[in-house]
Amino acid sequence: MATGRKKKNVAASRGGFEQLTIFDVIKEDEARQQEERPAPGSFNISSRLRNAISEGLKRSSLSRYEVAARMSELVGVEITKSQLDSWTAESKEYHRFPAEYLPAFCLVTGHLEPLRMMARMLKCYVLESKEALLAELGRIDQVKRDLARREKVVREMIEKMWATG
User: Fold this and answer.
1) Where residue 49 falls among pLDDT bands split at 50, 70, 90?
2) CA distance 104 to 83
3) Which residues are CB-contacts of 6 (< 8 A; sequence separation ≥ 6)?
4) pLDDT tens column, 115-141
5) Rg (Cα) of the chain, in Å, rounded?
6) Do the Cβ atoms of 95 and 89 come closer than 8 Å?
7) Which residue, 54, 48, 164, is CA-closest to 109?
8) What is the maximum span of the chain, computed from C-alpha positions, in angstroms?
9) φ/ψ bin of 138: left (φ > 0), alpha (ψ from -120 to 50), beta (otherwise)
10) For 160, what's the count of Cα atoms within 13 Å in the CB-facing half-sphere?
11) CB atoms within 10 A of CB 77
């Protein structure tokens, strides 16, 4: 959707420093995403969520009874195997998995795909602790490289000023 306004060139506003930072890229991507509208119905995740939860139950070393019991303990509300069955059955389309139980489900089963699937729809990521730390380290490295480039430009400008002054 064209708005008729020019997009600001972030790199040009940096005084000749042409390398975009990851933050600039993210800002530009966010602006682009705001202009893109999701297709009607594309956020109906009922079937995908059922499948992700079913897959988590299958991959878990725990029985459905054990998953229900551990979830009950975590949320402070009784959850039964029958409820898990109805929330994952395709034939029970009006039985929905409560969102407030999802963190407990993911913790008990060790299956984060339901959260990852939802995050991807929003152009976000679910990172586990180690992954998050590695991402932060990568961000720090990028900032260091950007600062080194900026430092080089400033030093070159100083040298030119001293040479002509």
Assistant:
1) very high
2) 15
3) none
4) 999 998 888 888 888 888 888 999 999
5) 25
6) yes
7) 54
8) 83
9) alpha
10) 6
11) 12
Q: Which helix (H) or strand (E) holds 72?
A: helix 64-75
Residue 138 one-letter amino acid: G
- Interatomic CA distance for residues 8 and 13, integer angstroms: 8
CA distance 70 to 63: 11
Give the span between the Cα atoms of 75 and 78, in whole angstroms.
8
Q: How far, in Å, are 94, 119, 157 from residue 90 at the CA level?
A: 9, 23, 67
7-39: b (≥16 Cβ within 10 Å) or e: eeeeeeebeeeeebbeeeeeeeeeeeeeeeeee
pTM, rounded to two decimals: 0.62
